[in-house]
Amino acid sequence: MIYLDHNATTQVLPEVFEAMRPYFCEEWGNPSSSYRFGSKLKRVLEEARGSVAELIGAQSREIIFTSCGTESNNAAIHAALRARPERKHIVTSQVEHSSVLTAIPGIERNGHKTERLANTSNMSFPGMESEAMLLLLDQAGICASSGSACLADSDEPSHVVKAMKPDSGASRHMIRFSLGTQNTRLDVDQTFAALRNIIATLRPNP
Ligand SMILES: Cc1ncc(COP(=O)(O)O)c(C=O)c1O
Fold it and tell me: What is the SS3 assignment for 151?
C-alpha cells in the first residue's frame, strides 16, 4: 500500500509507540492526581515537555500538550488573542480546517476584524471524475483523497476545494495527495505510474 493521505491521519512511528508503551499499559495514572500511582508520572510528563522544548528551541513552560487538533487550534487562536489584546486584526484563510473556520465568527463578535486568504494546491484531472480515480487508485493500493480529509464520504466538494474557486465543475476532478515522513521517492514514482494507467483507462475516447 502507498499511503498519500497523511493530512487525514498518520501512523504512530514504532519508536514513538515503544516509548509510550509503559504509559498505555502499566503507568497509566493521571499525573494531576494526589495518589502516587498518578502523581509520580508528573516527572515523566515534565521530562517529555523538556525534550519537546529542546527539539524546537523553546522553553519547557511554553509547551502545552493537547488532546487533538481542534483543541490545539482553539488554544493557539485564543491564547494569541489574549496575549496581545490590543491587536484586533486576524489574518486567516478560507482553506483552514473547519475547527478554525468555526472559531472565527465568535472572535469577530468580540470585535476582532478578520481577513481571509486562499492558498492550497490539489491536482486536477479534467474530464475525469475524482471519485472514479480514487476507486482505481485504491485498487492499485494507493490511498489519496478528494480534498475533504475529515468528510471523505460526503459528495459535496470540501470548503477547501470551493475556496480555490475552480472553474465550474472542476472540483469534481481534483485529487489531493498528502505525503508523510515515511513516503519514498518510489511511492511517488509508482503513484505517477498508476495515474498514467488510470488516465488511459478513464480518458474519454476522442
Ligand atoms: C489542520 C487540522 N486541524 C484540526 C484537525 C482536527 O483534528 P482532531 O480531529 O484531532 O480534532 C485536523 C484533522 O484533520 C486538521 O487537519
Answer: helix
Model pLDDT for residues 61-118, shown as the tens digit of each residue: 999 999 999 999 999 999 999 999 898 888 888 888 899 999 888 888 878 887 766 6
CA of 70 to the centre of ligand 1 (A): 6
3-state secondary structure of 63: coil
Asked if 130 and 157 count as a contact pair (C-beta separation under 8 A), the reply is: no
pTM comes to 0.71
Atom number, ligand 1, closest to the C-alpha of residue 70: 11
**Side chain identity, residue 95:** V
CA of 94 relative to ligand 1 center, distance in Å: 15
Residue minimizing CA distance to atom 14 of ligand 1: 8
Task: Please state, in angstroms and rounded to a whole number, the distance separating the CA atoms of residues 140 and 41.
Answer: 46
CA-to-CA distance for 145 and 177, rounded, in angstroms? 7
C-alpha to C-alpha distance for 75 and 77, rounded to whole angstroms: 6
CATH number of 2-10+121-202: 3.90.1150.10
Mutate to test the pocket of ligand 1, among 5, 6, 73 (most ligand atoms within 8 A of CB): 73
Give the closest residue (by CA) to ligand 1 atom 5.
69
Domain ranges (residues) in the chain: 2-10+121-202, 14-62, 69-117
